Amino acid sequence: MYQLLSYPIKQKQPAWPGNPTFSLEPYNSISSGDIANTCTIHLFNHYGTHLDGPMHFYDKGVSLDKLPMERFFYHNPLLIDIPKKPGEKIIPEDIIPYERELKKADLLLIRTGFWKYRLDQPETYEQNGPAISSSTARYFQDNHLHLKAVALDFISLASYSDTLDGDLAHQIMLGMYHDNFICIIEDVNMKGLPSGFMKKTAAVPLIIEGIDSSPITMWAEY
What is the pLDDT of residues 163-187, one digit of tens each? Predict the structure, then answer.
């Protein structure tokens, strides 16, 4: 069975506070007498379900379009459930119990249950989400270099309630202090997915020259 993990891109969805979002501007319209329907898309590259590449928090990091395509396809995706409340951080002790399974994974999906706030309490989803602590980012870098990416069911690796530690966590994950980088997939819809290993997953970005990160189409087979 296949399941779409990307939220549809549309107006008035939760976003990191202060960032631009999305709008769709008609250009040609059949109803207005044109031969075809076309439009202009105004889309911030960190809106909706998106993948953070190495250049996002590290100016010497490679741009997303230069990553090999295999970075976006995962053959051993592992989903684990780590319930978290607003503002709570995922710490290494939350991850260590899954150490054996994680050694086999090329993508880690972390489901906190916070996706429920996206619809019911969007301001909380934006402003006080869970986060990956900087110590957990170091844990991934020190112990799981085989991971291509970590995916999250909340708006950002960082919480708006603690941007200082969140910035550091991004820098560590994306390779500022290491030779390796682990991509970050944020705002992922994991509702209804089974926990454990899935058959395969993909997170395919827009291929735009020189871009740090991009919205993605993400799906899973299980």
Answer: 999 999 999 999 999 999 999 999 9
Burial grade of 110 (CB within 10 A; 0-12, 13-18, 19 or more)? buried
Tokens of 213: 């990160």
CATH number of the domain at 13, please: 3.50.30.50
Q: Total domain count for the chain?
A: 1
- Name every residue whose Cβ is closer than 8 Å to that of residue 96 and which is 6 or more positions away in sequence: none
Six token digits for residue 90? 């995922």
DSSP 113: S
Q: Of 197, 188, 204, whose CA–CA distance to 49 is shortest?
A: 188
Q: What is the pLDDT of residues 48-94, one digit of tens each?
A: 999 999 999 999 999 999 999 999 999 999 999 999 999 999 999 99
Residue 146 domain boundaries: 2-221
Q: Which of 125, 179, 181, 126 is nearest to 150 (CA)?
A: 181
Q: What is the CA radius of gyration of the chain?
A: 17
